[in-house]
Amino acid sequence: MRKLIALLLLAFLAGFASAEPFTIGYVRVMDDAQVMTAYEAGLYEQYGLEAELVEFSSGTDLIKGIVGGQLDIGVLGFSNAFTWVSRGADLKIVGGAQMGYHSIVARNDSGISSVADLAGRSLASQKQGSTADIVLKGVTLAEAGLNANDLNIMGVAPAVAVQSLVGGRVDAAFLFEPYDRIARLVAPVTQIYEVGQVWPFPCMVVITSSDTLADRQDAIWAALDAQAAAIELLQNDPAQAASLIAPYFIAEPTLSTLERGELSREQVILEAIETQTFSPLLGEAEIARMKELAGIMKAQGILETELDVDAILDLSWQEARAQN
Questions:
Q1: Which member of 125, 150, 193, 201 has the greatest number of CB atoms within 10 A?
Q2: Residue 88: is it exposed, middle or buried by C-beta count within 10 angstroms (0-12/13-18/19+)?
């Protein structure tokens, strides 16, 4: 009898432990679509997780939740991990998410047709120190022979950037999806540049702390499995994925556009999904690009010393999956 009670108690405790919430930080951008899709499609639950999504306004803010132990994992720009590791944080990049898609759209009345034309003009962009900001200054502007002081860069929320384009308060904006798509539908703008076509890089990755990885590896791997399944859904049935996540981005059922009338929010998000390249894996090319960006961060003074990128990577999940 005592043995039976002990076994029942152990079973109860095991069930209680498995139901421990698993917290996932995300930013409400298309780069993090696999997080929202996995949640709305019930994929985290399917892989045995009681997932809780925690929204942040930027990856710069999200990383603090991982460092502070409030989050189990987060999907965000890898440059945030580099910055915090350089300050002594023990973080690990455990998987991929999305290849960078950042476009520059310019108002049609601005006379801007190339990146070089931004000299002396105003550009709405993301927060200083974000992955997008680092790429904008270290790659996009540099390749056009410009530096940040050659134009007026304003770090604002993407929705504010779109409204600024509509109102003519800025000449151009550096945007990710779905805000690039929305801007081109509601504002008199033309896309003049897209970084993924020029300098493809793994913008978003999955980050955790070394302590969390040691304590909850099975749960982290389950989350990676769920997000990989979500990426398959995004790639193979983008219309279904759009129906699941459209309300995250557009509150009203339709969007009033300049040339196409009223579009359903699902159609807008479907078009945004179709511009994206999602991947749960990090290959040699992606890792090489990460190392290149670490060098750019050092040149910009964000990192004071050389960073050992390989030491931050823990790709045991994808290695194990490759063997199955």
A1: 125
A2: exposed
